Amino acid sequence: MIRSRTIALALAAVLAVPQLAAGTATAVHPTRGPVDPPVPAIPQKYLDQPINWSVCSFDAAVKRLYPQAPTTNCATVTVPMDWANPDAHPDVKVAISHSKATGTSKGLMTTNPGGPGGAGLTLSASLAVEKPQLFSDFDLLGFDPRGFGQSTPLQCITTTEKLNALPVTPDHKERTRLTHEVEVAEAKLLAEACAATEFGRFASSQQTVYDMEFLRALLKARQLNFIGYSYGTWLGGWYADAYPERVGRFVLDSNMDWTHTQWENMNFDPFSGQRRRDTQLIPWIARHADMIQGLGSTPAQVTAKYNQVRADLVKLVKAGTSSVRGDNLDGMIYSAQYGNVRFIRATLDVLVHDEYVKDPSASGEVELRHVDRAWARISPELQAFDTLATIRARYGVTPAASSAAAAAVRVDSTRSVIADARAAAVRSKGDATVNLGAISTTVRCNDTAFSHDPRYYLREADRMAKKYDFFGYMNGVPMCAFWPYPPQDRRVDLKGSPRMLMVQDELDPATAYEGALRTHEATAKATRFVAIDDEGQHGQYVGSPSACVEEIGDRFVFSGELPGKDQVCGTSPLPAELSVFPVDGPVDGNAVHLPRSKQQRVNPMLQETLDTIAGKSLR
């Protein structure tokens, strides 16, 4: 169970992490709170539309991994751009995948990988490859949320002239007047770009919830079952609040604080990201000094080495001889530490940049020699957790970097999107229209209220940069500070919903334990909370390092049985280790110990999906 001392500690930590300033409380927490929008009726013409199914392009990959899998078919279906006013705007398309249960179906199961904006077309089938009982027990539905993946894309439109006019800072971590000017200018540009089309206003969680309910009705399922990760917990919580009578078995894994605002969730990230780095990643690197050359044998030495490499990167950028940035390295480490097995990749990122500052290239970019030298600095035992080809692809130093699979290992952020667009704008002639693509922060802006005072965010980033020296500056000024549309918000209380399973590890870098616990306490009558002690991987159920969580999740998904009370689970060791190293985190450590599982290797299809979400976590 989770003891009262644990909850007290967790709530104390909540009070210690960044909270909204009192001066902006009205802007971020409207006095009367959000009001649930009315549930729209589904016009019959959408339910009557023909569905032109064809075998999914990824079906062959599924069957290679699990030959007994049913055929997964794909289609695109038409939905209103705005469910509240179906005739007011052009329709949009949602890409879906579907397979029939090979046994007696328990109903329709769908999933979401996170984001916002994570493409989920392949996720349901990928999870079933890892857990084949999903194929036998459920009709499986995958979908790309509106605006993303193969659904009608959100477009963020600007011009080369506006891109060229943006100021530039050598390092967002340096909280200078120039950095402030850059963050405000970039936020204004992104808000204007993503609001430039009428679709921008309707790329939101509430509209996606309506899409999910439509897909349930279209496929003639009585209820919806759901496995959601990260932002997928936000989506699942909102669906359950809007359609409690349609909720089947919902597993919400690596939870956002989905009863509060998007900004409060963003404001947890520097704290939770630093905790994962400082309590697990850096000590793990230090413990493997005999397998990793030149990063140090104590956490203090590893941290000092990281800071030295980062400082050298910034010097080269300031000298005008390099485009390899220190804040980009921070972003790579932040996203790589989402997965335990990716500790090796995070280590290689530090080594690659160490090689680069020792021997900068004339091109000002990381080159093949830097990657190959870094690879040679880790032992064969660690190399077995990744591949040299993948690391080369991560840095774009081989032709393979252009493949779809290689795109999953690169880190993408709004800053890198702007930087790439600026580089292209410099080469273009005249003023041209530029599509920055689907910026997922649009969903956040549409979901909940944000302060419209950029000075508030600048003060917060300045304060956080001092408090959390790894990535405290990460948020800066969000484009939502300049978003022109009111939020399509709701008050999530889960009134009338059956009980759902919340899974949360204590050291998650992207969805802080304290925020998840706060949401559980706000919805205690409708949620059961399972914490994982000494664990920090983002995403737990299905391929989890915790056998305890797998067992609890399986009992619920396949039998409908939840634990009688909140629980704490143990976990298995980090890569290349034989024992779990304790962390003094918010969970009290009195875990329910089940037999320890081996370090699990997730199937490549699922891993690619998870890597893609992690790589775009800053966008």
TrEMBL record:
<feature type="domain" description="Peptidase S33 tripeptidyl aminopeptidase-like C-terminal">
    <location>
        <begin position="475"/>
        <end position="569"/>
    </location>
</feature>
<dbReference type="InterPro" id="IPR000073">
    <property type="entry name" value="AB_hydrolase_1"/>
</dbReference>
<dbReference type="InterPro" id="IPR051601">
    <property type="entry name" value="Serine_prot/Carboxylest_S33"/>
</dbReference>
<keyword id="KW-0378">Hydrolase</keyword>
<dbReference type="Pfam" id="PF08386">
    <property type="entry name" value="Abhydrolase_4"/>
</dbReference>
<feature type="domain" description="AB hydrolase-1">
    <location>
        <begin position="113"/>
        <end position="300"/>
    </location>
</feature>
<dbReference type="GO" id="GO:0016787">
    <property type="term" value="F:hydrolase activity"/>
</dbReference>
<feature type="signal peptide">
    <location>
        <begin position="1"/>
        <end position="21"/>
    </location>
</feature>
<protein>
    <submittedName>
        <fullName>Pimeloyl-ACP methyl ester carboxylesterase</fullName>
    </submittedName>
</protein>
<dbReference type="InterPro" id="IPR029058">
    <property type="entry name" value="AB_hydrolase_fold"/>
</dbReference>
<keyword id="KW-0732">Signal</keyword>
<dbReference type="InterPro" id="IPR013595">
    <property type="entry name" value="Pept_S33_TAP-like_C"/>
</dbReference>
<dbReference type="Pfam" id="PF00561">
    <property type="entry name" value="Abhydrolase_1"/>
</dbReference>
<comment type="similarity">
    <text>Belongs to the peptidase S33 family.</text>
</comment>
